[in-house]
Amino acid sequence: MDKKLLALVLASFLFFLFFNTPDSHAASNDYIRHPPRQLVATPHQGSKSDPQQVHVSLAGKDHMRISWVTDDKNVESKVEYGKQPEKYNAVATGENTEYEYFFYTSGTIHHVKIGPLEPATTYYYRCGGQGQEFSFKTPPATFPIEFAVVGDLGQTEWTVSTLAHVGSEDYDVFLLPGDLSYADFQQPRWDSFGRLVEPYASRRPWMVTEGNHEVEMIPIIYPHGFKAYNARWKMPFEESGSTSNLYYSFDVAGIHILMLGSYAEFDHDSAQYRWLVEDLAKVDRKKTPWVVALLHAPWYNTNSAHHGEGESMRKAMEEVLYKARVDVVFAGHVHAYERFTRIYDKKADPCGPVYITIGDGGNREGLAMKFKEPGSPLSLYREPSFGHARLRMLDETRAHWSWHRNNDTDAYVADEVWLESLSTNAACWDTTTPTKDEL
């Protein structure tokens, strides 16, 4: 069969599969979803050479990466920046790429790394030498620092509500544990998503990891998947010693953050596993008292949706995180909120991480309404509502977690808890971070 004809047949099949079933990625259909709100479309209002889909991310010590798209392929990949509006005393150049997916060809995707930058400072910047001026604020170098945490974001009316709630109060870094655009093979939805989040992602660093909706794998034609995700959302994997954009780490203000890949190989012989062990072995908890991990498919989950889908990754990697005394593990995938106690190996353990599922950003599939009964004593709070969360590290020992339910006009704090860093718990340090040889 001709390759183009095969592609057309597969595209038709995938369109039917993904847009005529209630939940194409669900482990089962024995749970009920609250009806989602309508999708939103975000068109480009500028010229072909104007930057669009602008977003910034942390890119190693004292540096940021500016990413954007232009329809004009002749626009230079450069960023001019400075500390005063319209006064740019520095310029950096970078790289650009584009990709094809069936009959879709992306615009030119630019990535430019700038710095060194000062902490807690507002910078003004212009992409490609033209178009509007943007600005961002760098994170602080020391505590306190605040993260906005949102999973399974999508681009619906609920997404708009969630982002408005996030933007109503200041924060330093945005964390997203997978499922960004819900493009699901329809590549123009990646463009629409980038334009939707630009007002937020251009002002604060967005750090993301992949979910199942980023895979977009098609046997034979696109066997490796993640083509759009890797091209558009370049994260600092090289800066953290990783060989894949699907998993990496970064440091900010005394916190080491692991962005793990639920859909990359993770068994003991995998590159991700080896990288994780080596990465954690470098962390000095006296200098970096907090360690946080994000991944997509939750290891602990009492919802009927996607139950057990993170189990194989848990079995492979849980011990590594436990011995490294990771403080908190965030996941998405399940379209509801759930907070667990500290756990290791399916038991309450004061030296294990707190596990939190926050897959409630605003996806097009709706909420996972059905939790298993009776509930588990390990699960301390659970609710199927759209919302977002904030993690505020006050100092080396204390952090405040709050989950904000979307209530149309107001974000209501429905769950909150104080956390203590495991680095200060002497009883948890009888063992040390495992070495590569030990695991």
Share of helix among residues?
Answer: 10-25%
What is the chains' assembly state? single chain
Query: Mind telling me the CATH superfamily name of the largest domain?
Result: Metallo-dependent phosphatases
Question: What would CATH call the class of the largest domain?
Answer: Alpha Beta
Mean pLDDT: 91
By CATH, the architecture of the largest domain is named 4-Layer Sandwich
In total, the number of domains comes to: 2
Shape descriptor: globular
Order of helix and strand elements from N to C terminus: HEEEEEEEEEEEHEHEHEEHEHEEEEEEEE
Kindly name the structural category: alpha+beta
Number of strands: 24
Percentage of β-strand residues = 25-35%
Distance between the termini: 47 Å
Number of helices: 6
Give a short summary of the structure.
The chain has helices at residues 3-19, 157-167, 188-201, 227-232, 271-281, 311-323; strands spanning 52-58, 64-70, 78-82, 90-93, 95-97, 100-101, 104-105, 108-114, 122-127, 134-137, 145-149, 173-176, 206-208, 248-252, 255-259, 290-294, 328-331, 337-344, 347-348, 354-358, 379-383, 387-393, 398-407, 410-420.
Describe the structure.
The protein contains 6 helices and 24 strands. The protein has 439 residues and is an alpha+beta fold. It has 2 domains: 86 residues, Immunoglobulin-like, CATH 2.60.40.380; 284 residues, Metallo-dependent phosphatases (Purple Acid Phosphatase, chain A, domain 2), CATH 3.60.21. The strands form 5 sheets. Strands 14, 15, 16, 17, 18, 19, 20 and 21 form an 8-stranded mixed β-sheet that branches. Strands 13-12-11-22-23-24 form a 6-stranded mixed β-sheet. A 4-stranded antiparallel β-sheet has the order 1-2-8-5. α5 packs parallel to α6. The longest helix has 17 residues. The chain is globular, with a radius of gyration of 21 Å. The N terminus is likely disordered. Keywords: Glycoprotein, Hydrolase, Iron, Metal-binding, Signal, Zinc. InterPro entries: Calcineurin-like_PHP, Metallo-depent_PP-like, MPP_PAP, PAPs-like, PAPs_C, PAPs_N, Purple_acid_Pase-like_N. Its EC number is 3.1.3.2. One of its GO terms (molecular function) is acid phosphatase activity.
